[in-house]
Amino acid sequence: MTVAALCMVLTMGACAPEAPHSEPGSAPSGPASPQGATGQVAHVPTPPAAGAALERRTGAPESSPMPRSFRRRAFGKRGGWSGPALAPLMAQSAVADLAIAAARPLDPDEELWIIVARRPVEVEQSPTEPEHPGSGALVATRPSAGDDKQEIPLPLKHTEVHAAITGYVGTVDVTQQFQNPFDEKIEAVYMFPLPEKAAVSEFVMTIGERRIRGILREKEEAEAIYREARAQGYQASLLTQHRPNIFEQKVANIEPGKRIDVNIRYFHSLAYRDGWYTFVFPTVVGPRYNPPGSKDPVHPLPRAHVQPVSTGTGVRYLRPEERSGHDIGITVKLDAGVGIEAIESSHRIDRTRTSPEAATIRLADQATIPNRDFVLKFKVAGGRVKTNLLTYVDRKKGQGYFTMVLYPPEHLDAAPRHPMEMVFVLDCSGSMHGEPIAQAKAAILAALDMLKPGDTFQVIRFSNNASQFGPEPVPATPENVARAKRYVRQLKGSGGTEMIEGIRAALSFPHDPRRLRFVTFLTDGYIGNEVEILEAIHKSIGASRIFSFGVGDSVNRYLLNRMAKVGRGAAAYLALDDSGAEVMRYFFNRISRPVLSDVEIDWGTMKVTDTYPKRLPDLFVGRAVVVTGKFTGEPGQPVVRGRAGGKRVEYAVPHSDGEDAHAFIPNIWARLRIADLADRQAWIHDPHNELAGAIKKTALEYGLMSDYTAFVAVDATRRTEGKHGTTVHQAVPVPRGVRYTTTVKEERTMKEER
């Protein structure tokens, strides 16, 4: 492929003067080269493309024309393509590029190249090119300063997070700084988490002073572009999604001693509980257990594992005696819109109050090892926020979008408590060994003490299989509670995470219509078959409510929140520094009183469509429900109706002004639509790929990441020196509180199993 071919298909600073090539031997010396480097990768070129036009968009004034030599390479003597190209991969994608340029003006230091293909051309991939040009086995180590851990030279040096929170919506910029510590060029591969509700909408690669805007493509097309660029020696980056909360970053052809930064921007809404908003930035993917037959597993692998996995994907983990040089910095600029009464954090922070409504929060220790979620909570004045309606109208489309947060009315806090059927389901797998299972057991013991004589209960444990306290729920007598406590205290963590067995055991026995059935799962959610779990819940939920209780510092929030959504319940989180008993008592007091059930909304003058969630859940004390959708007509005052204490109640919702400030709503709506379609895939299985097509269409229209779309950026101004690069997987620490030996299989163990 020629430089011109790549130039025409990608967003890049292609017309900048070519950077000088590195002189052989000029790279700074570093640790020994990664093992397993291969020779030149064979490439079968694609046929020359049909004619296409190239349009350049730049954020800066046109101060200099395209260099003549490059212009000849780009267009040829007759204005056509000068060589084989991937450019016409997507005739339709020019529309998407134009939409990106129109929706988000370029910064002065950015460029965007737009392809306008004359006619569609099919993608032709290179069958002889392997997925990974080399292996990532590292033989060099460095002694670390200040502790007895061995520092492993790896490419990811620093992650810088800048978040701006306005009200209950966060705009987050994440910059990952990759630097090559070896004496030959490498490809860096990094698996990392983001919030499951993150609407990832921007992607920029920075090389020196040049910022190259990434483009969104269908996933297969983006991967093909990246592979071609990598094989030809161009510096490139690719962002793909494996789960709504697990992403993979690839950066190709990082030269020795050189640095490439990748910036990701996303939007998401914050959770609310009893006057507190919560902002979460996850830092590490927890090790997953994959039941036999898992269709898309996430394998927990040791750092030295060099072979690509045959199915699914893999996350490499550092051993307990190892660490990398990767650290993290976090800055949050908070504007709550109302007075802030208190700020709490999972980490040590520095805070500056700029006004009663605003503050700037920074992570105090910039060398913090990223092995647990960063959780920031802030309490707003008065402890309550009034329900209100936010709207935004896209004038070009003539389409309105809205989001509304429903808070339970204050006068319903004293709702009577109904008799309950409580089912506690405890994860006793190996990843819960130690502190996590101790926390979970303390929570269950506290909940057992809160049961009343009219209640019934059951305790179920699962790991490789499931067992239970009794054949069916038993009355909450003092004798039964005492026996259950003895049963809980003797439970230990070991084995796999066959959560499907726990779900079947919890939802299979007949429901007592005289009681509200609450099924509470206490787990870290470290499993790789989330889709199968959600499918099982959807099929068996009946009249039950599911309350997921995340235990640990880096839990699988995607699974836990989705379980609560499908199960019409709520999710809560118990960190290792929390008191399991206190958190459960607080949680139990809230969930035992659904203050508003059978909720419905009269939209008045608004004609509303495509709302999420599709089915409104009950409102519980102190917990909000966010409703997002599309509308036409004039925004009015919707009326919320429901049942509380056996009586019908209703209240009006005011419309908030300042529509122009709510431009984030379409992206949030699109992310919710994608999540809803993905949920439906779990139980419909989408035999004709109709749901997959709808996800892809929505993601491309709104410029968002999804399972079927990906961001790619390529610098086509120059080729890097050398004919190959070694793939180095960024190994990460296991989450705090999780034992490496019970969750990560070493090479010897995997060979024995084979």
Helix content range: 10-25%
Mean pLDDT rating? 80
Strand content: 25-35%
Q: Classify the secondary structure makeup into a structural class.
A: alpha+beta
SS field, number of helical segments: 14
What's the gyration radius in Å?
27 Å
Strand order of the largest sheet: 1-2-9-8-13-6-5-19-22-21
Please state the oligomeric state of the protein chains shown.
Answer: single chain
The span between the termini is: 41 Å
Number of strands: 40
Task: Give the overall silhouette.
Answer: globular
Which residues form runs of ≥5 with pLDDT under 50?
1-30, 35-57, 60-96, 98-103, 113-145, 748-754
User: Main beta sheet, described?
Assistant: 10 strands, mixed
Q: What is this entry, summarized?
A:
This protein has 754 residues and is an alpha+beta fold.
What do you see in this structure?
The protein is α+β, with helices and mostly antiparallel strands and 754 residues long. The protein is 20% helix and 34% strand. It has 14 helices and 40 strands. The strands form eight sheets. The protein has a ten-stranded mixed sheet. Strands 26, 27, 28, 29, 30, 31 and 32 form a seven-stranded mixed sheet that branches. Helix 1 (3-9) packs across helix 2 (68-75), helix 7 (499-507) runs parallel beside helix 8 and helix 8 packs parallel to helix 9. The longest helix has 20 residues, at 665-684. It is globular. The model is unreliable at 1-30, 35-57, 60-96, 98-103, 113-145 and 748-754 (pLDDT under 50).
